[in-house]
Structure formats: C-alpha cells, structure tokens
Amino acid sequence: MTRKIRRTILTAIIALTGVGIVVYALRPSAILVESAKVGRGLLEVTVNEEGRTRVRDRFVVSSPVAGRLARVNLEDGDTVRQNEVVARIEPVPLSQRERQEVYARVEAAEGALRQARARQAHAREDFAQVRRDRDRAEELAKSGVISAQTLEQAKNADITAEDELSAAESSVQVAASEEKIARAGLIGLDAEAGRPAPLIELRSPRAGRVLRVVEKSERVVPMGAPILVLGDSASIEIVTEVLSTDAVKIEAGDPVWIGGWGGDRPLRARVRLVEPYGFTKVSALGVEEQRVNVISDFVDEHKALGDGYRVETHIVIWANQNVMKVPISAIFRRGQNWSVFLIAGKYAELRDVEAGHRNESEAEIQDGLSEGDRVIVHPPSELRAGARVRFD
After folding, report:
1. Mean pLDDT computed over 177-188
2. Structural domain includes residue 15
3. Are residues 327 and 316 in the same domain?
4. C-alpha span between 14 and 31 (Å, rounded)
5. CA distance to 214, 270, 288, 295, per residue, from 243 (Å)
6. Residue 7: inside a domain, yes or no?
7. Is pTM beyond 0.85 here?
8. Which of 186, 199, 303, 334 suits 392 as a labelling partner, its CA being 20 to 30 A distant?
C-alpha cells in the first residue's frame, strides 16, 4: 500500500470519527423520568369525606314548666347514674295557655313512648328473624351450598339488626323519661299565687355522662328551656356528609377506615345506615350541593374519642385483593382511551390500556400491560413516544 493510499484512508477515518462525534453531540439527551413496576395487590375504592363523632343516644334534659332553676352542680364530663337528680325547678303559676301546653306535652310524650315501644317490638322481631337467617347461612356454608360472601352478608345483617334492637331499647328508655318529665309539668298546675309550689326534680333518664351544661346558674327559665345534655360516651357513632351521587354507591355493612383522629393508626368502622333523605349545603366555594348523612359504628376501640370530634372517613365501596394496578399518576386520557408510557429498553413506548376501578393513588389495569412491566409516572410534558429515557 502506497503512502498516498494510507493517507487517504487515515483522512477518511478521521472524517468519519468527526461526523460520529458531531452526530452523538447533537443527539437528544435521555429524559430523566420516574418509574414504577406494574404489580398485583389490594385495591380499595373509597368515598372520602370529613366526618364527626356523635353520641348515639343523646338526651336533652329540659324544663317541663316555667320556673326558677336552682344552680346546677354538675360539670361537663361528670358521670351520672340512671334516675339521679340533675336539676331542680320551683314552678311559677301558669296561665291558661301554659296549662294547655303542659297537657299537650304530656299527650305528645305518651304518643312518643307508644311509638318507641312499637319500634322496639318490631326491632326485636327483625333481630330474631335475622338471627335465624344467620344460623341457616352458617349451616349452608358448612355444606358448601352458599359462598363465603353470602355468609359474611348474613353476619353483617345480624350485627346491624342487633344494633338496631339496642337503639330501639334505648329509645324506649328515653321516651319513658320524656313522659316522666312531661308529667312533672302537671305539678305546675297546682302552683297558685301566694302559695309555695312543689319543687320539681329533673332526673337522668339513663346512666351516662354530662356532655354539656346549658344552664349553670340560678335563674328563671321558660317552659321547654334546655338545662343540660346527657349521653353515653361509650356509644359513639360517626356521621359523614357525602354527596348524594356518592351516597347511592354506599350500602349498610360497607367497611370504613377512620383516620385523622389523632392516633397513630386508622380505626375500623362499618356503615350502619345511609339516611333516606338529603339536604342542601353550600360548599366553601359557594356551590350548593345535595348531601346525605351516612352513619357508621366503630369496630375498633375508640375510648379517646368524645362527642363532636372531627375525623376523616374513608368508606370502602369496592375492594379486590388481587388486582393488577399502577400508580394513578401513570395513566392519562388520550382521546377516549386511557394510555401509559411504557419503558421498553431505553425508550418510551406509548400504549393504550383498559383501566378499571380507580382511587386517589392507584388504578386497576384490565388489559394492555403485564405484571412486571415498568411504566412512567408523572410523565413530563416534553416526553414523546420513542424518546430515550433513563430512570433511577
């Protein structure tokens, strides 16, 4: 090989190397992205709203007559026994109108007591029927005739019916106490001007705690004025106001997670009732919303919580233990389809997927991906199909 040829070859190699360096330098750099693997596991779809605790059996002790209230010695949080005297009132002479009001209060209290007793009888029959259904379900489950889910529904119905019976029995106690208080107003009918009237003693309808003393000091109070509020702090329920569009997805027996209550772990609860009526509420943005109260009962111990505490409720309306899922930030709309950026080697591949149930953090993938695939989460705006990517 002559010197001229060697020089030509060397010149060509140098030129090609230079071109390669320029092409490499001008090539778009790899985009740094966040990624996550497609995996399987538990997925729960929840309705998330703020809620508040409420004593389930609340009783307002009010004045059955107009009179002078003696100073109330009880304080908020004090424990009272059933039938314990909680306040005393010296009635004043009543006018004809006030006398008619007293008689009307007695009649209303008697009607409420009859209604509470009828509800108690109805709840007792329902509980007996549900208990029989549960016993039959347990026998059928042993034989494999019904599924485990059907048995679980029967058990949940039994728990709910037992709670309803307990609530009905408490309602009878409260209604009976209301009737006694209303009848105490009849004492005021004997109070005549210039003659001392019998002292009326207001008694606690059941054992519990004083939630709030409304009237502490001695003063003249009108008929029906609230004196104090009593309740059983061990019987606390959670009230959650949800949108009516979410309420139709919730059923009695649905599990609930209670967070934001101040403890180091969420508490378990269960939906007891979705109230059958809605109400209008104005949101913080000034928008009118139709909302419905969802009432839940605690499953876990909740001694630290009292009446009127704020909590965060997560009502589970769908759950599956074995779902193929990706972070919710990995999927996005492209026309009418859901899509993801799949990492194929060192490049981003745009792929349409079929997304199912979703919550605030994860989405179910029904088709389009395989377990172990790696997808890009929070895809940057400059990312395009075929772009080189790198990830940690």
Report:
1. 69
2. no
3. no
4. 31
5. 33, 18, 11, 14
6. no
7. no
8. 334
Q: Are 275 and 216 found together in one domain?
A: no
Q: Which of 206, 231, 256 is the last residue of a domain?
A: 231
Model confidence over 257-293: pLDDT tens digits?
999 999 889 999 999 999 999 999 988 788 899 999 9
- Given a cut of 50, whether residue 193 has pLDDT beyond it is no
Strand (E) or helix (H) holding 63: none
Is 25 a domain residue? no
CB of 80 within 8 A of CB of 230? yes
List, in order, residues 6 or more apart from 209 with CB less than 8 Å away: 77, 78, 79, 80, 230, 231, 232, 233
123-156 pLDDT, tens digit each = 888 888 888 888 888 888 887 778 777 777 788 7
Residue at token pair 């029967």: 154
Question: Under DSSP, is residue 144 helix (H, G, I), strand (E, B) or coil?
Answer: coil
The answer to whether the beta carbons of residues 69 and 89 sit under 8 Å apart is yes
Q: What pLDDT shows up at residue 254?
A: 93
* Judgement on whether residues 290 and 181 belong to the same structural domain of the protein: no
Is 298 within the bounds of a domain?
yes
Non-local CB neighbours of 268 within 8 Å, separated by 6+ positions: 255, 256, 257, 258, 298, 299, 300
Question: How far is the first Cα of the chain from the last one, in angstroms, to the nearest whole number?
Answer: 51
Residues 308 and 327 in one domain: no
Q: Let me know the angle formed at the C-alpha of 187 by 177 and 114, rounded to the nearest 5 degrees.
A: 30
> Token digits for 369?
């991906």
Domain boundary among 260, 286, 320: 320
Q: Which residues pair with 229 in a beta bridge?
A: 60, 212
Kind plus residue range of the DSSP H or E element containing 97: helix 96-142
Quick one: 92 and 149 in the same domain?
Answer: yes
Task: Burial-class residue 131 by CB neighbours within 10 Å (0-12, 13-18, 19+).
Answer: middle
Of 175, 180, 221, 183, residue with least CA distance to 103: 183
